[in-house]
Amino acid sequence: MAKPIEFNLFAPYNKGAALIGSFSDWQEIPMEKGNDGYFRTSVELKDGVYKYKFRVQSNSWFFEPEQWVDVTDPYATDIDELSGKDDSVIHVKDCERITDTYVWQNDDKPLPADHELVIYELHVGDFSGGEDDPYARGKYKHVIEKLDYLSELGINAIELMPLKEYPGDYSWGYNPRHFFATESSYGSTAELKKLIDECHGRGIRVIIDGIYNHSEASAPLTQIDHDYWYHHEPRDPDNNWGPEFNYEHYDEKLEIHPARKFIGETIRFWIQEYHLDGIRYDAARQIANYDFMHWIVQEAKNTAGAKPFYNVAEHIPETTSITNVDGPMDGCWHDSFYHCILEHICGDTFDLERLKDVIDCKRQGFLGATNVVNYLTNHDHNHIMVELGNREIFDEEAFRRAKLGVAILMTAVGVPLIWMGEEFGEYKPKQPESSKIDWTLLGNDLNRSLFESYKGLTNLRKSNHALYTENIDFIHENPEAKVLAYTRWNDEGSRVVVIANFSENFLAGYHVPNFPSAGTWHEWTGNYDVESGDDGIITDLGPYEAKVFVWQ
């Protein structure tokens, strides 16, 4: 049985448009334009899968005036990339247009709140498979195979690098061409849903990396009417990755902001269709429009409904204005934390005030624990092992410093983020080509021991809610010995003290006087108890070592 299925194309200032597809032998089916700016036509279709495109008289300045061009549907949820033609694909079932037939299983499972998050950033293509794997992998289903590992590590959110369909089979995804379609080389839309569903079943939230600053150069909207949706040319040529959405442009006739309309529809679709729990907004500094960001964050939260939804800006260098009282975002990437901690564990510098500023983001003007996302590295930077190796620091010495880094990461004020492989000392330099994680490293004692440090400290966060707060006091500082100590606490009696030695000296019998309370403390990293008297505690501090004391 066939029923009419509507095809529509929003192109308000284009003169003509037609539909072509496998259902018409690629012959033109005329489309009528309504007063709302949409071209429409209906086609009788039985259940099945069909390919189609729109043929439009383009208004883009790089074509001849009113030249006819064939464009992919900007709203297509599936793209046939293999043909090289980027055909839009429509799935019809029970006489309705559908994305897929996936049935969600775990929507009722409780998920952690924003302040409880430990985020794991991964690239689907590079996360699975590797040296010990005879199969070329890197798909959603292979991430599912690693969820037991991630649960053991103790993370409770994954941040997926961009998933929107990009040209070719390998990319970091910051060149999205099709905003409603998922990257086909990673698997089907149903397989992505299964990954998200399996995460939810384990209490893991899923955040996606969203690109709303720009699109890839030949994205459909650029072909239809470039300057209706985009700035005519880059505003900052040094930081330009493709045509930039123009969120200022207002269409008075239709009373809409065209770029906002499109991106709003994109975000609502992804949250409804894929049950997401948060978005990282790439290049927020280049978007440079707080008005738009306020609106889009509100759209995202309204769509997500009652469940927690975390909106994080990548605004580099960071600024408090993007996340404080009147700022649009819940949090932002804390890039000064990365630079400062890296320089200190590498021994490049020692600056107590800078250290205190990044460990307690309130000193920089941030308001609370969810306003910053801290990291020792991310996809944009080398792994710590590479940075240490570049300074001729290797083996046990390097792993010791990495452990110092993770102790600070997991106990500083803010939400910690781990870049894939960092937790066991992956050492490949950052590169644009495919760079699979080397899972065989986990077979080495040093790598496994670093993994255990990460695991222990992620679990400390879950068991000790002092680390969920913005409460922090710096109780001891010694610039000569390069030692800093701080305490974290909450109102329920949880307490943690961190003592960090940023020098290459072994400090035997080191005295930290003003401990928060006398009594028994448990040293978390080494698993032993220490008594604190009224005059504090005495402990041995290894070179580049942090001790983490937990009130019993």
Automatic annotation (TrEMBL):
It is an enzyme of class 3 (hydrolase). Keywords: Glycosidase, Glycosyltransferase, Hydrolase, Transferase. Signal peptide: none annotated. Its EC number is 3.2.1.141. The record marks D380 as: Transition state stabilizer. The active site is at D282 (nucleophile), E314 (proton donor). It holds the Pfam family CBM_48. Transmembrane segments: none annotated. Belongs to the glycosyl hydrolase 13 family. Residues 96-461 form the Glycosyl hydrolase family 13 catalytic domain. Pathway: Glycan biosynthesis; trehalose biosynthesis. It catalyses: hydrolysis of (1->4)-alpha-D-glucosidic linkage in 4-alpha-D-[(1->4)-alpha-D-glucanosyl]n trehalose to yield trehalose and (1->4)-alpha-D-glucan. GO terms for biological process: trehalose biosynthetic process. This is Malto-oligosyltrehalose trehalohydrolase. CDD domains: AmyAc_4, E_set_AMPKbeta_like_N. One of its GO terms (cellular component) is cytoplasm. The keyword Transferase applies. GO terms for molecular function: 4-alpha-D-(1->4)-alpha-D-glucanotrehalose trehalohydrolase activity; cation binding; glycosyltransferase activity. It is found in: Cytoplasm.
